[in-house]
Amino acid sequence: MSARIVVLGSLNMDLVVTVSRLPKAGETVMGDRLGTYPGGKGANQAVAVERLGGQAAMVGRVGKDSFGESLIRNLQTNGVDSSGVGRDADQPTGAALIIVENGGQNMIAVAAGANLAVGRAEVERAEARLRPGDLLVMQLEVPVGVIEQAVAAGRKAGALILLNAAPARTLERSLLRELDVLVVNEREASILSDQPQPAAAARALHGAGAKLVAVTLGAKGCLLCDEAGVRSVEPYQVESLDTTGAGDAFVGGLAVGLGSQLSSEEAVRLANAAGAAASTSVGAQEALPRPGDLHRLFGLDVPSYGNTI
Q: Residues 43-65: pLDDT tens digits?
């Protein structure tokens, strides 16, 4: 039986407009037509796993509204087990307002909605879906207290714990010590570690207890730190159009790589390729790559998903 990747996290509807340049404070910049795309870091990462051949189950909460219905239907269309997604009668579905500059950089504001109501019920649904050797993937678009409860539940179930500590915030060292994998970008790494340089931050976070730390560097690739120390994993070069879902594609690729029993470096290399490929198209989930995309762009073959993590 193949290992399952259970994603506990956010589901949002992304409202995206493309502009020639990002606006300054108080400034109006005219853009292209508004695009509506399924998003939320949790849902993005679940779809990223399925797109790359893994087995994903999503646990989270949406409102009883049209956005919520659309997000659940989209998970099902992409092969994700959506039975762990609850419907909240009191809160609207989360939404993200995204401004994308020509060239790929973006600005994002999130109305969390039902994501902030994620609680003990979701933790229990996640735990019920975990078997020994499965992987529990989480982010920080749901309450941190829920993440802490889920880490304990994941440990009890014998799962590997991966936290994408985004959006940026500080975390208790007691939580970091429980993580098998920590994924952060440069800013998130600096805030978590109080170290301005990515290599020093990666080293500090590993020293704080996270067994494997990946610090994503955008077009510069990724730093990896584990018991063997800090090393760099080179990027894949692409013409970037929209970086909105690149980080989530990275997490999905890393999860699939670890699930396929790749080495840390090989799994991060797959994650780098997934993130780079995602930046070549507009939209978070719309741009998430499939194995054929990685082969076409980089000549990279995605391994068959393994039986153990």
A: 999 999 999 999 999 999 999 99
